[in-house]
């Protein structure tokens, strides 16, 4: 029987970047990545969208994620989907490409997702389970290390990202990029 490693590549869309002031996760994308004998492949993909419970994205943020307040208010609350999310995550590590907060340790994705778990009365996902590709990207390409640049650098077609920056779209692209660089980490 083959031994494999299951990880999840994650991306979020948020109402804004000030989590401490109440910005919320409005979309979560998770993509399974398996590694068997140094060969990686993509498995299941899941996406959730959430009602931000009155928190509205500023117009410049709406232009990025293209999710209207009217659409989002019809979606379930994060707390209504949290058990489904936790069941999918299981004990997997969470890989993502995200800004590191001023604390120099946690990322915006980690802060936002853990804030939602806290609001739902659940324990946060331990920091040791988070793998952020952004710090590695900065060492690889100090001047240009955005997700777009890294996708271009590693030959991942990012045309799906042109219409909108959706969480599942970005998680899928990050998963493809991650499989290309995994042995360099």
Describe this structure in words.
The protein is α/β, with parallel strands linked by helices. It has one domain (4-184): Nucleotidyltransferase, domain 5 (2-Layer Sandwich), CATH 3.30.420.10. It has helices spanning 59-65, 69-72, 78-89, 108-119, 134-140, 147-153, 167-181, and strands at 4-14, 25-36, 39-49, 93-96, 130-132. A hairpin with a 2-residue loop joins strand 2 and strand 3 (39-49). The longest helix is centred in the last third of the chain and has 15 residues, at 167-181.
Summarize the structure.
The chain has 185 residues and is α/β, with parallel strands linked by helices.
The proportion of residues in beta strands is 15-25%
What oligomeric state best describes the polypeptide chains here? single chain
- Kindly state the mean pLDDT as a whole number? 93
CATH superfamily, please? Ribonuclease H-like superfamily/Ribonuclease H
Low-pLDDT segments: none
C-alpha Rg, in Å? 16 Å
- What is the 3D shape? globular
Please state the second-level CATH architecture: 2-Layer Sandwich
First-to-last CA distance: 27 Å
Backbone structural class: alpha/beta
Strand order of the largest sheet: 3-2-1-4-5
How many domains? The number is 1
């Amino acid at each position: 029987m083959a031994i494999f490693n299951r990880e999840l590549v994650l991306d979020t869309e948020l109402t804004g970047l000030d989590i401490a002031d109440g910005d919320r996760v409005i979309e979560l994308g998770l993509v399974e990545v398996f590694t068997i004998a140094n060969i990686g492949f993509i498995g299941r993909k899941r996406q959730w969208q959430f009602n931000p419970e009155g928190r509205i994205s500023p117009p410049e943020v709406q232009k990025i994620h293209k999710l209207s307040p009217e659409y989002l208010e019809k979606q379930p609350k994060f707390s209504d989907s949290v058990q489904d999310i936790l069941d999918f995550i299981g004990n997997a590590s969470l890989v993502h490409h995200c800004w590191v907060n001023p604390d120099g340790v946690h990322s915006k994705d980690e802060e936002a997702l853990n804030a939602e778990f806290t609001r739902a009365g659940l324990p946060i996902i331990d920091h040791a389970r988070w793998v952020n590709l952004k710090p590695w990207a900065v060492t690889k390409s100090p001047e240009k290390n955005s997700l777009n640049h890294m996708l271009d650098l590693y030959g991942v077609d990012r045309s799906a990202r042109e219409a909108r920056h959706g969480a599942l779209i970005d998680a899928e692209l990050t998963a493809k990029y991650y499989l290309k660089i995994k042995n360099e980490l």
